[in-house]
Amino acid sequence: MDNSFVIALAAFCLSACQPTPLMKTASAPKSAPASAPTAANALIGPAKAGFDLSEALCSGCHAIKSSEISPNPQSPTFEMIANAKGLTPGTLSEFLRNSHHFPEKMNFEVVEEDSDLLAAYIITLRSDDYKPPIQ
User: Fold this and answer.
1) Could you tell me the maximum CA-CA distance found in the chain, to the nearest angstrom?
2) Are the beta carbons of 96 and 87 closer than 8 angstroms?
3) Which member of 13, 92, 110, 112 has the greatest number of CB atoms within 10 A?
């Protein structure tokens, strides 16, 4: 199956995760514009491809860059996911491939190649000095 078709199909399926005007608040911080210099600009290979994929498919619900707030308050940031105890690229990729593990709102399929790319990017957000946000 053509990758562009799979990506388009996934984007269509994820459109339900896009924030609605009711989910946004005037006090919510805005994320940096795409042209702003970030660590994501320094990515190469699978991690860069994973970032690009997450920008297209995941950013409607999840904060995909460090120090951002997720557009959907119920969605963990990729930085939080990356710093989960015991997480490895393999365990994350496996989780992403098994849609029965997802919350109901995130019930869609991620093909193996895409799950590996997403995991390769997300793991780059791991930090030894990460401190989870105060809940």
Assistant:
1) 43
2) no
3) 110
Give the pLDDT confidence score for residue 124 in this predicted structure: 96
Structure tokens at 99: 């849609």
The pair of structure tokens assigned to 97 is 């491939």
Q: Which amino acid is at 65?
A: K
- What tokens does 1 get? 């199956």
Q: Is 25 helix (H, G, I), strand (E, B) or coil?
A: coil
Six-digit token string for 93: 């990729």
Q: How far apart are CA 108 and CA 51, in angstroms?
A: 19
85 CB-near residues (< 8 Å, 6+ apart): none
Q: By CB neighbour count within 10 A (0-12 exposed, 13-18 middle, 19+ buried), where does 73 fall?
A: exposed
Residue 26, pLDDT score: 35
Q: Collect all residues with Cβ–Cβ distance below 8 Å to 63 and sequence separation of at least 6.
A: 31, 69, 70, 71, 75, 77, 78, 79
Please write down the HEC assignment for all residues of 91-121: HHHHHHHCHHHCCHHHCCCCCHHHHHHHHHH
